[in-house]
Design brief:
This protein is α+β, with helices and mostly antiparallel strands. It has two domains: 5-127 and 269-287, Probable inorganic polyphosphate/atp-NAD kinase, domain 1 (Rossmann fold); 130-264, Tumour Suppressor Smad4 (Sandwich), CATH 2.60.200. It has five helices and 20 strands. It catalyses: NAD(+) + ATP = ADP + NADP(+) + H(+).
Length: 300
């Protein structure tokens, strides 16, 4: 039995991804590396491929594996992160979607990524997460969870305005009406927070971002606060209900008077790095930023 094992997570909604998964399975099998697949994905995968075990998508899915190998876009990687973080194993994403900012390799570098894994030629970096607790007006816990990208408190109905108070370190900062407020990590600064007008923060910076979305106020600028700060968002107790969305995947309804507290996560997410690419180059490549006219540092 192989002493090396990998959990394979696939966006099986696209037939082309399933074919790629078969190729990946064959390559790892040839190298003597065992594969686990998820029970809810296995019916879509070719049973003739070398999948050693079928496991439930729970906190023990990645336990004892070397890493989680992801085929898909950022949504698939975020789903895989929920399985990898409890086990403390790293995630390697191969982008088969669109932007795929979290993925370490694009589809044209798939075989190179597989070879790096087979050879054990990769590094691992840790990314900051956030821990989130939502309470109702009585103080009862509605949800306790975590996020890699962001926690977002949003209005629950398009035609209504969400009234919130933003608090940092136990002190009120500002109250306003808005579509929502995001509390994001540096990793999440290129995701939803970016679309809401927040700054791009390099992932090795430790900080929390507070980004209002379409706020009706003179002071509603994005805030960058200490990673040790505690951020709270309070929904007006006389206002409308809201929704808490976590990484765009997990959510809970927030009745009027609810409070959402966000702090730096106790457990980071580990990501596989195949090459020492500066974050600047990744930013330019993923967003196709124009850099014509750049001359570089002076030789002198």
């Amino acid at each position: 039995m192989s002493c090396r094992e990998i959990l394979l997570v696939v966006h099986t909604g696209r037939p082309s991804n399933v074919l790629v998964a078969q190729d990946v399975a064959a390559r790892f099998a040839e190298a003597g590396i065992g594969l686990r697949v998820l029970a809810d994905e296995s019916p879509e995968l070719d049973p003739s491929c070398s999948y050693g075990a079928v496991v439930a998508a729970d906190d023990e899915a990645a336990e004892g594996t070397e890493l989680v190998f992801v085929l898909g876009g950022d949504g698939t990687l975020l789903r895989a992160a929920e399985l990898a973080r409890p086990a403390g194993v790293p995630v390697l994403g191969v982008n088969l979607g669109r932007v795929g900012f979290l993925a370490e390799a694009d589809s044209d570098a798939l075989h190179e990524a597989i070879k790096h894994v087979i050879d054990g030629a990769y590094d691992v970096e840790e990314r900051m997460t956030v821990d989130i607790t939502a309470y109702d007006s009585s103080g009862a816990v509605l949800q306790s969870t975590w996020a890699l990208n962001e926690a977002s408190v949003e209005k629950s109905s398009r035609e209504r305005i969400l009234d919130v108070v933003v608090e940092v370190d136990g002190r009120p900062v500002s109250a306003f009406g808005c579509d929502g407020v995001l509390v994001a990590t540096p990793t999440g600064s290129t995701a939803y927070a970016f679309s809401a007008g927040g700054p791009v923060v390099w992932p090795d910076v430790q900080a929390l971002l507070v980004v209002p979305s379409n706020a009706h106020a003179l002071f509603a600028r994005p805030l960058v606060v200490s990673p040790s700060s505690a951020v709270a968002l309070e929904v007006d107790h006389q206002g409308h209900p809201a929704v808490l969305s976590v990484d765009g995947r997990r959510g809970v309804e927030l009745p009027p008077g609810s409070r959402v507290e966000v702090v730096g996560g106790r457990t980071p997410l580990r990501l596989v790095k195949l090459r020492k690419e500066p974050f600047t180059d990744r930013l330019v490549r993923k967003f196709s930023l124009p850099v014509q006219g750049w001359r570089g540092p002076s030789a002198g």
